[in-house]
Design goal:
This protein has a 5-stranded mixed beta sheet, sandwiched between helices. It starts with a strand and ends with a helix. The protein is built from 4 helices and 5 strands. The longest helix has 11 residues. It has a single domain, classed as Glutaredoxin, CATH 3.40.30. β4 and β5 form a beta hairpin. It is α/β, with parallel strands linked by helices.
Length: 108
C-alpha cells in the first residue's frame, strides 16, 4: 500500500492539520525538489500506510516557515514530524528520518 500524498500548501491547511492531530496523529514532511537526500527519503517513505502531508519548500516557503515557528523546531529539509494533540511526538531530519519509527508514531 502506498501513502496518500496531500499538498500542505497553505497556513489554513496547516492549522486544520494541527487541529486534526487531536483526533489522530498526523505526519508532515518538508521536501526539497533539488536535494538528493530529500528524494531518497521521499522514496523510502513510500512504505508508509496513511497520509503524508507534503510541503515542497521551494513552492511553499511561507508554510515551511510557519511549521518551524508553530512547532518551535529549526527548519531543515528534508524534515519529518509526527504531531499528536498539537505537539511534536516525532522529529527527524535528513538520514535520521526513519519510516518505521514514523509508522509506529502514527499508529500509537
Amino acid at each position: 500500500m502506498t501513502p496518500h500524498i496531500v499538498d500542505l500548501d497553505s497556513i489554513e491547511k496547516l492549522n486544520a492539520l494541527v487541529e486534526r492531530s487531536f483526533e489522530k496523529p498526523v505526519f508532515i514532511l518538508k521536501h526539497s525538489r533539488t536535494c538528493g537526500i530529500s528524494a531518497d527519503i521521499f522514496e523510502q517513505l513510500g512504505s508508509l500506510e496513511g497520509e503524508i502531508n507534503l510541503i515542497v519548500v521551494q513552492d511553499h516557503r511561507t508554510v515551511s516557515n510557519a511549521v518551524a515557528d508553530r512547532l518551535a523546531v529549526r527548519h531543515a529539509s528534508p524534515q519529518a514530524f509526527v504531531i499528536k494533540n498539537g505537539e511534536v511526538t516525532y522529529h527527524a531530519t535528513h538520514y535520521g528520518i526513519d519510516p518505521r519509527a514514523i509508522q509506529i508514531a502514527l499508529d500509537s
